[in-house]
Amino acid sequence: MRLGPFLRAMALVTLGGGALTALANAQAGPSDPAAGAAILEANCATCHAIGAMGASPVATAPAFRTLSTRYPVESLEEALAEGIMVGHEGLVQMPEFVFSPEEIGHIIAYLSSIQVK
């Protein structure tokens, strides 16, 4: 059976779209808590305690292991994607951070792993 030019183009678009979706899913891979820890170390550890123990370098900055006492950690996904920006009157202004979907998955996986129960 021979396909006309339009049907041939549609078949290529459909196959190509499926291949791109599969490639994107393969690149995203599973979330890696160790990668999340590294991202937080590079961006947040100057002010926040990012580990399972220890005090925050800035006394008013909450330790990340206690975030779940305020709200579900998963609820941070949107804020991490859109950019977290927090101002504190009279204190250091927190810089704005925007993370990729892959980075957010890693961060959430790490934060979930260190929450105090």
State the total count of DSSP E strands: 0
Instruction: Count the DSSP helices.
Output: 4
Radius of gyration: 21 Å
Major sheet details: none
C-alpha termini separation? 63 Å
Mean pLDDT: 77
Overall morphology? globular
Beta-strand residue percentage? under 5%
Helix content: 40-55%
Unreliable sequence segments: 1-27
Secondary structure category = mainly alpha
Order of helices and strands: HHHH
List keywords for this structure.
117 residues, 4 helices
Question: Layout of SSEs?
Answer:
Blueprint: H1 5-28, H2 33-43, H3 76-82, H4 101-114
Helix pairs in contact: 2-4, 3-4
Explain this structure.
- There is one protein chain.
- The protein is mostly helical and 117 residues long.
- It has four helices and no strands.
- The termini are far apart.
A few lines on this structure:
This protein is mainly alpha-helical and 117 residues long. The protein contains four helices and no strands. Helix content is 48%, strand content 0%.
